[in-house]
Amino acid sequence: MNGIDGNKTMQLQTSIITRNAIGEQVESWGTVQEITGWLDLAGGDSKYQTYSAKIQESTHIFLADYVRLAENITAESSRAVIDGKRYDIMLIDNPMEMNRQLEFYLKYTGGQ
After folding, report:
1. 60: closest CA among 32, 34, 81?
2. 85-105 confidence digits (pLDDT tens)
């Protein structure tokens, strides 16, 4: 069976909170893992909404071959950067828990 391969590299980043000289919290992001796959626009105007709210809010889908994700990567604590554009991760799906592919439901948040 051939893999998905892909033409895009997604950087999965997690935030790191530090304090500056006057004690304020400063958030910075660091790349934890890179995954190659395909990015597609999640569009459509279906009147039949059977998906969860997180999927409905998504603007893009990133499909990749299954890889074990770093332990600290979750939809709640991570973001994706693809071609210098930032995306919030709404949902990470391993369809039917078959460990063949990963689907990342993303929400575009802007350039870097």
Report:
1. 81
2. 999 999 999 988 888 899 999
Task: Tell me how far apart the alpha carbons of residues 4 and 85 are, in angstroms, rounded to a whole number.
Answer: 22
pTM, entire model: 0.80
Alpha carbons 59 and 109: distance in angstroms, whole number: 10
- Concatenating the DSSP letter of every residue in the chain gives ------SEEEEEEEEEEEE-TTS-EEEEEEEEEEEEEEEEE-----S---S-HHHHH-SEEEEEE--PPPTT--TTTEEEEETTEEEEEEEEE-GGG-SSEEEEEEEEEEE-
> Which amino acid does the sequence have at 54?
K
